[in-house]
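Section 3.1 - Work completed
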Amino acid sequence: MRKFWLACIIYFCSVLPTHAIEFTIHDATISGTYIDVTGYIGSTSNYYLQGALRSSSGGYFFSETQNNQGDWIDYVSSAEKEYITNNFYLTEPHDPSWSEIIHLRFRVDDPNYKGPGEYELELRRFTGGGKTSAGESDPLTINLTAATPAPSPTPTPSPTPPPTPTPTPSPSLAPSPTPTTKPSLKPSPSQSPVLTLPPDGTVAGESTEIDLSVFGVSPSPSLQGVSLKAPTINKSRVKTVLLIGSGLVLVALASFFGYRRYLATIKK
């Protein structure tokens, strides 16, 4: 009988509703990428808090929560208890509850931020004795207006010009050798051989004295005092010249007289 009543007591204790801790947030103030929200926990126990944002259309949670030392801590879905107790915001309750302003912020370049629109904000509490959350506040719908950064234009690669073939240098021709002019052994026609007479009037030991008086020419003053030997005359050539000269004279006289007779005949 005693065991029966003990079993009944255990059964009724298990089915009786446990007292839930009231955990709410309200009065969110938004300034650009910063959010201030007032949290309330109806308990005198200490808790570690973390804020979380998510687009109303779905996606992953994101945000940064400022802890008691003023450091900004990124949202993590799961963490070791040492990390939680060293980094998360610690509540300091006053009997019979706790209520403070929690500071949050987000980055516009966060891949989970989808630009201006409606987002759900909530706080999560941890006891510090384990990794899992001890509960979440009721979500609060807020409207974020921060614009996402414009994507940087992708530079269009410039077409690479085809390589210009390097011209092959043509083999250079060796210069033709300039013909060497051989000195001519022939005497220049403009130069006449000059015969230089010895000052004593002899050539090769013979006298060069010439008597020009037979030709009716007085000896040149420059040759006075120089004894010249008369040249040898070819007599047969002289006779021939005299005969020809006499014949020409006779022809000239005959022509002259014949022309005069012709003129006299015309006058009559």
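Second construct:
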Amino acid sequence: MSRHFLAAYLAGLIVGNHPVRAYASIISLNDAVTWLAQIVMFLVLGLLVTPHELLGSLGATVAIAAMLMFAARPIAVWLCLAPLRFSGRQSLFIGWVGLRGAVPIVLALVPMMQGLPGSHHFFNVAFAVVLASMLLQGTTLGWAAKRLVITEPPPQTPQDQRPVHGRLTLDAELPLTDVFEFFQLPLPPHAESVSLRDWMVDHLARDPVEGDGIDWHGARFEVRKLHDGQILRVGLALASRAKVAVE
């Protein structure tokens, strides 16, 4: 059985790192199915928990959660990342975002299924530790990133590029070849019979949101308007050397 899981994992790595048609649609479907499976799994696991029994394991839960959050994981992360020359702030943040999830709860079910003595207590502690991790670490990720000064700076327009926000927009249904030839940009492979929308969705490899952008040989294409998840309008910024007519 383990060989089948390993084979499926390796196949996913190979396929995920190669160009695939309708990649964005596949990722969108997989995300939806994954979230649905997680919701069902947590609902089923939650039915095995008795709230008043969690209070009986409060001491062990606090001790284990504190050890994992503030000692075990930060030290393990630092030891793993030290050879890769990560800074102390980066290692500390990576250690803090190690949220506990469904896997520890599922593993805690194994002793229960085997009928081992005290296994229910073990399950309650694992469930409470996961809950504490989600509530404490999950709600403080943004705060921790700001305190450790590792947030990404806002994107800045290069000096040799002039912003065209609100002045130059393109219809997402335009043929890609017409757009690139008009602005004298190198054509990507397999550009025939592809719209500007299709090209952007394939390059983004996920559901687009307003503000998403793609840099292409001195030009930047950005999503300007969406409707039902479909790109309608695309903004374009070109290097100053390009001569284009703007609205």
